[in-house]
Amino acid sequence: MEKPAYKIALLGAGNVAWHLAPALEKAGHEIVYVYSRTLANAEALAQNLKAAQATDQPDFSQTSADLYIMAVKDSALPELLQAAVFPENSLVAHTSGTLPLMVFEPYKNIRGAVFYPLQTFSKNTPVSFRNIPFCLETTDENAMLLLQKTAGSLSEQVYKVNSEERKILHLAAVFACNFTNHLFGISAEILQQNHLRFEMLQPLVEQTVQKAFSQNPFSVQTGPAIRHDENTIQTQLQFLQTNPTYQQIYELLTRSIQQKS
């Protein structure tokens, strides 16, 4: 795919923007503005870019950009969208996994779009965009072409995904990523409290993930729940008696596994 250079303004200076901005520059695009309601945050990101101007004013009426990317929290986006001023017919895309394209419906002077990278981002954890799926949506054909070229300059996985499909993808991602990470945290806490190393689980976790993506995950389930090993289950529940929340999680997941067996 052809990879033309675009002028891009980023609204947001959080985890997504922190990784997306330098990746876009590396792909040949120009980040012209970085907005954050806290100027220091915008400046911190802009300092890592070639020539981006930092601002805490969401008035872009006198700016010129091919694409305005709103990389902010879902809860902050409606308020920012209401406050922001864009040049007529600007292409404005959000990066949310859950907010529908319809969030742009009241704003007839802009072309709304979705530019959603399906990945978890933390500021201090490097990511490679090459294999990150980008889910794109817009009703404007020319806008879709620009989005595809922009995403294609970053990743080999670019998809047209409508709002309903994206909502389902995000739900699945919550189970696969957020809930799984929380379970990792529980595992690490149990081990650390008992003077054992979390790193000992790494080969087990890697093998589990590998199997899950090479076969049906339910078909390769292992452990005491799938074996209906009640002695082990009760022993482990007893161990968790000082933490009722962890007990409930253990019981709920055990029942779910057994219902699928």
Largest sheet: 8 strands, mixed
- N to C succession of SSEs: EHEHEEHEEEHEHHHHH
**CATH class annotation of the largest domain:** Alpha Beta
Low-confidence stretches: none
How many domains make up the 3D coordinates?
2
Q: How many angstroms separate the termini?
A: 45 Å
Query: Number of helical segments?
Result: 9
Domain DUF2520: 132-257
Pfam family, one: F420_oxidored
Protein name: DUF2520 domain-containing protein
InterPro entries: 6-PGluconate_DH-like_C_sf, DUF2520, NAD(P)-bd_dom_sf, P5C_Rdtase_cat_N, TM1727-like_C_sf
Question: How would you summarize this macromolecular structure in one to three sentences?
Answer:
The chain is an alpha/beta fold and 261 residues long. It is 44% helix and 15% strand.
Summarize the helices and strands and which ones pair or pack:
Elements: E1 7-11, H1 15-26, E2 30-35, H2 39-46, E3 53-55, E4 67-70, H3 77-83, E5 90-94, E6 110-117, E7 134-137, H4 141-152, E8 158-160, H5 163-193, H6 202-214, H7 224-227, H8 230-239, H9 244-260
Parallel strand pairs: 1-2, 1-4, 2-3, 4-5, 5-6, 7-8
Antiparallel strand pairs: 6-7
Organism: Adhaeribacter terrigena
Pfam families: DUF2520, F420_oxidored
Domain DUF2520: 132-257
Outline the structure in words.
With 261 residues, this protein is of the alpha/beta class. The chain folds into two domains: 7-161, NAD(P)-binding Rossmann-like Domain (Rossmann fold, 3-Layer(aba) Sandwich), CATH 3.40.50; 167-260, ProC-like, C-terminal domain (N-(1-d-carboxylethyl)-l-norvaline Dehydrogenase, domain 2). The protein is built from nine helices and eight strands. The chain has helices at 15-26, 39-46, 77-83, 141-152, 163-193, 202-214, 224-227, 230-239, 244-260; strands spanning 7-11, 30-35, 53-55, 67-70, 90-94, 110-117, 134-137, 158-160. The longest helix is centred in the C-terminal third of the chain and has 31 residues, at 163-193. It is elongated. It starts with 6 loop residues before the first strand and ends with a helix.
